[in-house]
């Protein structure tokens, strides 16, 4: 039998606010345990929650970014469950009336585009954190995170492969950073995903029993977890077993998922409206004001880059995959004043490779947009070749100065004097008679060998276009 996997994601984005969602306590990461667990966070008797307006602002920005419905009236509810890191015994969340309704996000997988529907996005408070590794036979509870504002983003089960799920998660990760509502730091738990996976016979429209993989904080782990879980479910069904709805964890050490507990249903949480919080009312004027403050969104910027700079769709899509890359490209192109495609090539090639090699974000690039533009100007005016430009770039990366200073100090200026190049060519032809004979007998590869010998003799400084032209004249 052929099987089809069905995947939906619930993503928790920690909102970039200075204080918690219902109190004035700090949300800064890395404080000593329990130093930011305020009276509201730990539910001391008599305290009352007060909604953080900035969290609402973030939620509305997200809703606008995915072209979703923004509810004029939404309600906070109490989600009741008992766990050591939840001191109140309930979590303040939204249930029947979320602030953000139906929207969508378009992803790219290979050459195909697919639209993933988003069911809802609702505001809620985070729980604390159970700490196991620092204690022997015990668990520590750190309540610093309790009360941190989250936006939970729930997709429809529209994904049909691990690749699609990862593409959707990455696109969402890029978007929340782009619009400035979440720093996206997965290691610190600012962006984490729960993945619902089920399988069904191919062609069936009936959903299978799902298992939820909790708290995946890396795209690589997400890919591995979904692939393992899919195989496990298919093998279980083909062996005559049944799938029980459950919450599971992924173990990166073994590459396997394991059941943690049976999966709760909504009625298990006994949701009811929080009596301490008024309904949240959002006016059309407020939505208009938020819309005015929004940055240009990636899709709009991609279309503009194609139109304004003449970039191919692939280049525009790659550059607008990150706000930092897009801003760098715009700055470098403006400073260069030449062909935007050359900037794009260096940004996606040499610069991106170097950043990836050293694990740096583009905001930390030692080569500024102005410095890259200066390098490209020297390529454009023939001062240096592309090959020499790589050497100059490496020197710029290690802080040796701008392109002009490095070219001058290292004597890297390209030789474009026809007489000087002709002299080198004559010497190479005289020293490589066998290679000349091979070329004249029809072996085209010999020509490239002669070009290489000329470049070697000139220590890479000869203008490659002139070398080719003079060699062809001499060999004609």
UniProtKB/TrEMBL annotation:
**What is this protein identified as?**
Aspartyl/glutamyl-tRNA(Asn/Gln) amidotransferase subunit B
A GO molecular function annotation here is: ATP binding
UniProt-listed NCBIfam families? gatB, PRK05477.1-2, PRK05477.1-4, PRK05477.1-5
Keyword Protein biosynthesis belongs to the record:
yes
Under the heading Pfam families, the entry gives: GatB_N, GatB_Yqey
From the UniProt record, give one GO term of the biological process aspect.
translation
Q: At the top level of its lineage, which domain of life is listed?
A: Bacteria
């Amino acid at each position: 039998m052929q099987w089809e996997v069905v995947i939906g994601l619930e993503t928790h984005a920690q909102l970039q606010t200075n204080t918690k969602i219902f109190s004035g306590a700090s949300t800064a990461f890395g404080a000593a345990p329990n130093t930011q667990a305020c009276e509201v966070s730990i539910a001391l008797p008599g305290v009352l929650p007060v909604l953080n307006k900035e969290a609402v602002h973030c939620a509305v920005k997200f809703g606008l970014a995915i072209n979703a419905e923004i509810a004029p009236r939404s309600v906070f509810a109490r989600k009741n469950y008992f766990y050591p890191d939840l001191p109140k015994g309930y979590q303040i969340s939204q249930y029947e009336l979320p602030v953000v309704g139906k929207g969508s996000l378009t992803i790219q997988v290979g050459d195909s585009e697919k639209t993933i529907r988003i069911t809802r996005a609702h505001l809620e408070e985070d729980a604390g954190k159970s700490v196991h590794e620092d204690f022997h036979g015990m668990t520590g509870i750190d309540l610093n995170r309790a009360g941190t504002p989250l936006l939970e983003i729930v997709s429809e089960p529209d994904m049909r492969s691990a690749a699609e799920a990862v593409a959707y998660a990455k696109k969402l990760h890029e978007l929340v950073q782009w619009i400035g509502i979440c720093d996206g730091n997965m290691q610190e738990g600012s962006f984490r995903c729960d993945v619902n996976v089920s399988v069904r016979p191919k062609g069936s429209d009936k959903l299978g029993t799902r298992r939820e993989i909790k708290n995946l904080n890396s795209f690589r782990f997400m890919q591995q977890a979904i692939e393992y879980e899919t195989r496990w479910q298919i093998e279980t069904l083909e062996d005559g077993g049944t799938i029980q709805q459950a919450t599971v964890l992924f173990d990166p050490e073994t590459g396997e998922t394991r059941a943690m507990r049976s999966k709760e249903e909504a009625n298990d949480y006994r949701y009811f409206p929080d009596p301490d919080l008024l309904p949240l009312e959002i006016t059309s004027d407020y939505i208009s004001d938020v819309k005015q403050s929004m940055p240009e969104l990636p899709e709009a910027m991609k279309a503009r880059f194609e139109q304004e700079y003449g970039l191919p769709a692939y280049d525009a899509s790659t550059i607008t995959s990150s706000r930092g890359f897009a801003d760098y490209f715009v700055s470098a192109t403006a400073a260069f004043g030449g062909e935007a495609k050359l900037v794009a090539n260096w940004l996606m090639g040499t610069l991106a490779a170097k950043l990836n090699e050293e694990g740096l974000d583009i905001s930390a690039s030692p080569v500024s947009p102005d410095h890259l533009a200066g390098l490209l100007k020297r390529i454009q005016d023939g001062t240096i070749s592309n090959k020499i430009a790589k050497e100059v770039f490496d020197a710029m990366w290690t802080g040796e100065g701008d392109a002009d200073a490095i070219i001058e100090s290292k004597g890297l200026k390209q030789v474009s004097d026809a007489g000087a190049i002709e002299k080198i060519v004559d010497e190479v032809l005289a020293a490589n008679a066998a290679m000349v004979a091979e070329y004249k007998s029809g072996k085209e590869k010999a020509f490239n060998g002669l070009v290489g010998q000329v470049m070697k003799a000139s220590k890479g400084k000869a203008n490659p276009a002139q070398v080719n032209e003079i060699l062809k004249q001499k060999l004609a």
